[in-house]
Amino acid sequence: MADTEHVRDMIRAARPWFPREDIDQILPAIESILESGWLILGEHTDAFERAFRQYVGTQHAVAVSSCSAALQIAFRFFGVKGREVILPTNNFPGDVSALLYEGGIPVLADMDPYTFCMDTDDALRRITPQTAGIVVVHLGGLVYPDIDRIREVCEERGLFLIEDVAHAHGAAMGNRKAGSLAHAGCFSFYPTKIMTTGTGGMITTDNEKLARYAQSVRHHGQGKRREDFVEMGSDWCMTEMHAVLGRSQLARLDETVAYRNQLVEWYRQGLGDADWITIPRYPAEFRHAYYKLPTIVGEDVNRDLLRRILEDEYQIQNGTIYDPPCHLQLALQSTLGLQRGAYPKAERGLARQLCPPVHATVTRDQVAAVVEAMQSTIDRCRTS
User: Fold this and answer.
1) Cα–Cα nearest to 296, from 261, 239, 348, 244
2) Gyration radius of the chain's alpha carbons
3) Fewest beta carbons less than 10 Å away: which of 25, 75, 341, 359?
4) Is 124 in contact with 145 (CB distance < 8 Å)?
């Protein structure tokens, strides 16, 4: 799997993977697009959308310019203006800003410290008569475990449910794929994601009205004729070149997810006896996509010092998932009016989270090098 020809000395926290044979197929397709002069909303976008909806198992898939665009379109369709939407604080700030751009009111929920997904009980307690819907995030590539429970509540109360699938391409619960489990799924194809189009996004849904609405507003609200504009939209199209990359990456997706799971098993083997780190396990019916491998370091470990030593001395990047959480992000604090202590589970859990490198260009030898570096460094990072 790993394309070691292109792996640099730094073991990076994330890296896209385009094998040479795929590049050799991509370049002629892009050349033909440039020669044609048809750069958006053409045959390649159609083919990517068709393949993606078939893979996910929804009736519709609409390609857009980013996951943020996908979320804004969904929020606008569901009418969030002036209404509350519940979403996790352990989240990318772009989810909150997309909601704010559409006039919605963010209501943050705390985190389950074991799965790093939203705390379901806390989220449900926050439903009020002003609630329009809920956004769940498949953190790190794990399908939100309570998706069925929360969907039933949403259906009973007339709320929309959106999946943020930015981390979970190829993830599944049983035979149901992430992106097919709610009223809408919003995917990201940012360069660090499990599959990438350079930048881009996708909306998946069984709601034909949402799909038609998204197809219109992604191109300024255009109607059936080029001259007619029937909705307030924006420039949210995916280019034909990006769609070519997406089709290539989608064809590799199952292979990529399987390899990420293999990397995690190698980490489990190498760190299984360590008393200072825990790698959570999940029920067999979950197909974890492992966009990230969230581990939990002991309370006596200085996580930030460990990360710094690994990068500075060993050239190994280790990430985290959304630390600090949304309510502590400077850009959002004045808007949300929340302070430290508001979401104690997220604050405590994220401070102990560490994500070693897991992506398609990491080799087995590099996993061994990461494990060895961690074991060699840990005594320097204990706080007592």
Assistant:
1) 348
2) 21
3) 341
4) no
